[in-house]
Amino acid sequence: MTMNQERLFNVLLGPVVSEKSTMVADKHNQVAFRVLQDATKPEIKAAVEQLFKVKVEKVSILNQKGRKKRFGRFSGRRSDVRKAYVSLAPGQEINFAQEVK
Q1: Which domains does the chain have, with CATH numbers?
Q2: 3-state secondary structure of 47
Q3: What is the value of pTM for the model shown?
Q4: pLDDT, greater one: 25 or 19
Q5: Least crowded by CB within 10 Å, which of 11, 50, 58, 70?
Q6: Residue 68 φ then ψ, to 5°
Q7: Distance CA 21, CA 29 (A)
Q8: What distance in Å separates the CA atoms of residue 82 and residue 36, rounded to the nearest whole number?
Q9: Angle at 60 between CA 58 and CA 62, to 5 degrees
Q10: What is residue 94's three-state secondary structure?
Q11: 56-60-61 Cα angle (round to 5)
């Protein structure tokens, strides 16, 4: 199964940096990413393995609905977010501070 290389570079939008994601990273050796709305688990796995040179065991996906927000009399809605929790193989890790050059 060959995947489009350009598509793999665009699947990952960025890491999720929050209290929950750092706790999950320490406890379960998982990393959270924001991904495209139509990204599939095999695409996410291939993208992470190619970009960060690590072995991925499992990918879990979460669809988070955008919340309704108001600013004075103007009401709106935040956009939906799709997150991927990527389980890394034992001994593997992704250090974002090191990757950025």
Answers
A1: 5-91 (3.30.70.330)
A2: helix
A3: 0.81
A4: 19
A5: 70
A6: -80, 135
A7: 10
A8: 7
A9: 170
A10: coil
A11: 130
Range of weakest confidence among 28-37, 54-63, 64-73, 88-97: 88-97
Amino acid at 11: V
Grade residue 44 by pLDDT with cuts at 50, 70 and 90: very high
Cα torsion for 45, 50, 53, 55, to the nearest 10°? 20
Instruction: Tell me the C-alpha distance between 14 and 84, whole Å.
Output: 10
End-to-end CA distance of the chain: 31
Question: pLDDT for 3-14, tens place per residue?
Answer: 688 888 899 999
Q: How many helices and strands in the chain, by DSSP H and E?
A: 4, 6
Q: Checking phi first, is residue 50 left (phi over 0); if not, alpha (psi -120 to 50) or beta?
A: alpha
Tokens 């979460």 belong to which residue?
62
CB contact set of 91 (below 8 Å; sequence gap of 6+): none
Which tokens go with 71?
């600013």
Tokens linked to 21: 């994601």
